[in-house]
Amino acid sequence: MGVSFNGRTNVSKTLYSRSSRDAPAVTNQQLVEKLIFDKVLVTPRIIKAFKAIDRKDFVLPGDEDRAYEDRPLSIGYGATISQPTTVAIMLEKLQPELGDKILEIGTGSGYLTALLAKIIGGKGKVFSIERISELKGLAEFNLRKYNFRNAALFVGDGKAGLAGYAPFDGIISSASGDEMPESWETQLKIGGRIVAPIGDSLVVLDKASKKRFKEVKYPGFIFVPLR
Length: 227
Hints:
The chain is of the alpha/beta class. The protein contains six helices and eleven strands.
C-alpha cells in the first residue's frame, strides 16, 4: 500500500512464490500476472487498476529496471514505494468501489494513490496525507502522468485524518500502531471500512453503527510504526 505518512512502508512476510513463475517480472503486465497466479489479486476492478497503473512511473530515476520486483524500493527521504504484494493484499481487503471517497494515510511516491484513483473512478475522490512535503511534491509529479482529477494531496499528521472532508467510505494506512486512531473511526462513515496494521496484524474494521465496529485480524505481517 502506499507508504506510511512517516515516509516509510511495511513489508509483508507474504512474497510471491518463485516456484509459481521462474522468470522474474520485467514488465508491469508480468508483475500483475504473478500476483494473479499467486491469488493475491482476485477482484476484476482491482486487477484492471494494476494493469493500468505502471509501477515504473512511481520509482526513482535509475530504478526503472527494478520497478517490477516484488519488494519495496527507496524513493528518498528514508521512504520506499511499497511491495506490490502488500499493496494488492490491502486493496483486496479494502474493496474500494466506483464513487467511493477514500482517505489514504501516506502518499509516498503516489503509487497506491493512483491505484485508488483508478479504482474509484472520476466520481470518487482520494484524499491522501503525507508527512514529508518533498514526497508530496514527488507524488504530484508522478500522478500528473495519468491526469487524475480525483486525487487531493495534503501534508500533515496522518493520525489526525482529515475531519474537514469526512465521512469517508474507506480509510487505508500502511504503518502500524498500538491501537486504531479514534479520529479514523470517527471520520469513517457507517458502513465504511478501515484497513490498517495494528501491531503485527493487518486489521480490517467495519463500522456497523456510530459506536459499534466489527474487527477482523490477519496476523503475520511486518509494518513500520505509526508516528
